[in-house]
Every structure is written in C-alpha cells, then in structure tokens.
Amino acid sequence: MAQERMLKFVATSQSFPEKREALLRAEDFHEIANRYAPDKAAEQASRCSQCGVPYCSVHCPLGNHIPDWLRLTAEGRLREAYELSNLTSSMPEICGRICPQDRLCEGNCVIEFSGHGAVTIGSVEKYITDAAWAEGWVEPIEVGPVRGQSVGIIGAGPGGLTAAEYLRVAGYEVHIYDRHDRAGGLLTYGIPGFKLEKDVVMRRVERLKDAGILFHTNFKVGRDASLDEMRAKHDSILIATGVYKARDIKTPGIGLSGIHAALDFLTASNRKGFGDAVPAFDDGTLNAEGKNVVVIGGGDTAMDCVRTAVRQGAKSVKCLYRRDRDNMPGSQREVANAEEEGVEFVWLSAPKAFDGKDAVAKVHVSKMRLGAPDASGRRAPEQDPEGDFTLDADMVIMALGFEPEDLPTLFGSPDLNVTRWGTIRADHVTGMTNLPGVFAVGDIVRGASLVVWAIKDGRDVVEHMHRWMQKQIIREKAAA
Q1: Nearest to 126 by CA among 75, 61, 63, 195
Q2: Model pTM score
Q3: Ranges for the FAD/NAD(P)-binding domain (predicted)?
Q4: Helix-strand-coil percent breakdown of the chain, rounded to 5?
C-alpha cells in the first residue's frame, strides 16, 4: 500500500511552491514563496522513485534520509517525517531554504536524469519542519547528565550552533562567544530575509538558550580574552568563526568611495530589518536607493546583493561576471529569481578600472572570453581586446568571495597552525588543531563553502571532542 503512494513522477509533474509576483516581492524582504499546502507537499513527495541507491542522499553533505522522509510525507505521517529529518540535521528548515539543492540533492535526483524534473526536496524539507514548529513537535533539547566539563565555542554561526546543541545533549556546559550582538553568524547578518527570514534563525537560537547554552555576544577573542586564556577557562575549545575577510582585487580606482564589500552591504541591510540604528545606511552610504548599482561576482553572495539592491529601490542593478551563465558558481535558481526582479546580468565581463572625482561614477569594463581550461577544469576567462565598454555606477559592491582573517594574530596565539591560504590546519578526521584540545570546523578550515557543510562539520566534531575530554579525565585520575 505504501509503495502505491510513491512513484508518481510520470503522471504528476514537478511543482514548486508558488512564488509571489516579482514586482510585488521586490518591494519587501519577506520570503518569496509560501510553503506548500499539506496536500501539495504530499503530492510532490509522492513523486520520489524510492531508488535502491538514493543519489540525493549520497550528494547531501549531511547524508539526510531523504527518500524515507519523502515517503512518510506522502503517507501523511508528517511528525515521523520531521523526526527522521531531524536525526541528521540540526537545522532542516534552514537547509530547506538556503541549500543550493539544484547542485546537491535535487541536482542528483534520478528522475531529474530521466527528464521528469527532480523531486522538490528542499521545499518539502522546509514544509516538514515549519509544520513541526507550528504543531509544537519541536521539543526542547534534552540535556544529558552533567559532566563537570565545559566547552568554549568561538563563533555562533551554523557550525558552532550545531556543535553546541550536540555537546549540550552530551551533558557539557557550553559557552558560545561571538563578535556580533546576535547569534547566527551569516545566517543572521549575511543572508537576506527574502531567502531566510530572521525569526527562523532566532527561534533556533532561543531553543539553544532554553537548553542552558550560554551566549557571550559582542565578544572578540584577542580583545576580550586571548585564546590561551579561553583554553585555561574551558576543557575544550572549538573555533567556528567562518571566513569574513573580503577578497579584493587590485584595480585602478578601487579606493574611491561608493565601492563596498558585499558583507558590509548585506549586514547593514539585515540590521535595518531588525530595526537597529545603522548610520551608514541612514546617511545613504550603504543604501542603494535611487542609485545605479553594479555588483561584481557570480556566486550566491552576489545574488544576495543584487536582489537586496532591488528591494532598496535602486535605479538600476547590473551584475558583472567574468564567465558565462553556464560556468557561474551561484545557484541558477537565484539567477532566475534575480532576472525576474529586474537585475541585468552582464556575462563575460570584468572591471578594468573605477572612475570618479570624489566617489565612483563609472566602471570601465573589459569584455572577456573563455579560453583553455584552467587547473580546475573550467575554461579560464581571458580578456577580449576589442570589447571594452563603460557603465554608470553610483555604488559598486564587490562580491568576490571571502578569505580567512589572520587568526593567530587576532587571537594572540602565534602557535596556532594555519595553511598557506590562512585557513586553520586541523586533522581531517578529528578536527583537532595543533593545540591540544582546540578543534576547528567549517569555513575557517574548508575555506568559503556552504552552510550545510558547516552544519556537518559541527555535528561530526562532537564525537572527537567528547573522546578527547574523556581521555583528559582518565589522565587526571591516573595522575592523582
């Protein structure tokens, strides 16, 4: 009987939750689509082919049991579907909103290969957990027996929050230290509300606080305490800072006012959404209203910037990317959303110089073409000598990715080993750095990556932190 409810992909077409009309949704920062109605979620879940080898799960960094919770959703067993999805992910409704499913689970769906359109996994995942919150199925964290040991986590982003939850379940006292005034990291300040409304993040944070996890906000390691001082205070340390330093380019005119780093622009916008006082937004510096905006980059951060600029009332928004559409790193769905909202993409183009008297007024652009493949196998962009042109620009946003900050210097810990790229050198199995009891996860180890990978790293490191701290107890007893 259960099997009869599945395998409906031939007769039932792919259908995502309906998006709001582009002109209307571009006026606010609410999410652009509502969640499924219950019958629609069950119908779309029933399209799953229940593969013997589920490539969707194989290509999910968290190894989510996707076909199983799709089947439960199709059968109307929604609470069981939620509980199963929650086994492998600490933030399923967040992953359902912001994971690039078209490059991960849905992009590897078998029925997608057959031409029937992938199962809408992300939208169903979002629906399941949103329903769980609405119905009260999301239970408080069950804290394990007190162990008498504490952990200090540096960074309240997805990796740090995930590790904190599992460590609290294991009975450890958990302290989270973050430079911002709110927890969440890029989930809070880097991702716009139209992709991830902030109450979705804050309710996760509140659940952690209710479990007794202690948050120390506006706390900078190196200013408020050195790494060594934190090691002396806690039995183990987890570094989960992410990477925040904007990648820069050496281009004539780069120092002109009106040229901003993407994260500065996005953080100002998100703070306004919280109702904070943001002088740099209010005085127009980080506000795109009425301006010709040029965003440089082709990743998901660039997509966040162009769509934010539209919502702020920009006069025009153009995105320059040095490769073509097929070779861009960002989600194709995000590109489509941006185009619907009025963003113009200028493919095969790169800034040659920025021009203006006191502030940027124009971007001189080099036309590019794709040459031979580079070391990664992608065709390398090269300048087309006959294709230069100029764009008007009152605001330029640099969305070229992020690099790690100099943590050994910032943390006052010169002995902390880093790679030649500045990421922390950590054991690829245990996550331990060269400093005993100091572990690291997420982008600060991997380099700029996806939220789902940070969640995985935060989940996986807990076992190794636990083992290390238990060994310390055994050593102390043996020495006594």
Answers
A1: 195
A2: 0.94
A3: 151-458
A4: 40, 15, 45
Q: Can you tell me which residue has the tokens 């305490």?
A: 225
Coil, strand or helix: which one is 372? strand
As to burial, measured by CB atoms within 10 angstroms (0-12 exposed, 13-18 middle, 19+ buried), residue 164 is: buried
Mean pLDDT of the chain: 95
Write the CA distances from 311 to 193, 218, 264, 336, 448, integer angstroms: 11, 29, 17, 16, 26
Q: What is the pLDDT of residues 82-141, one digit of tens each?
A: 999 999 999 999 999 999 999 999 999 999 988 889 999 999 999 999 999 999 999 999
The answer for residues whose C-beta is within 8 angstroms of residue 25's C-beta and 6 or more apart is 19, 32, 194, 341
Q: What would the two tokens of residue 98 be?
A: 């912001």
Cα–Cα distance measured from residue 195 to residue 29, given in angstroms and rounded to the nearest whole number = 8
pLDDT at 398: 98
Token pair 């804290």 in the structure block, residue:
143
Query: Does residue 92 contact residue 121 with C-beta atoms inside 8 Å?
Result: no
* Per-residue tokens: 369: 């073409």
* Strand locations in 83-209 (E): 150-154, 173-177
**Rounded to whole angstroms, how far apart are CA atoms 67 and 179?**
39
**Angle, nearest 10°, between helix axes 66-74 and 78-88?**
170
Average pLDDT in the 337-343 region? 97
3-class DSSP string for 332-362: HHHHHHHHHCCCEEECCEEEEEEECCCECCE
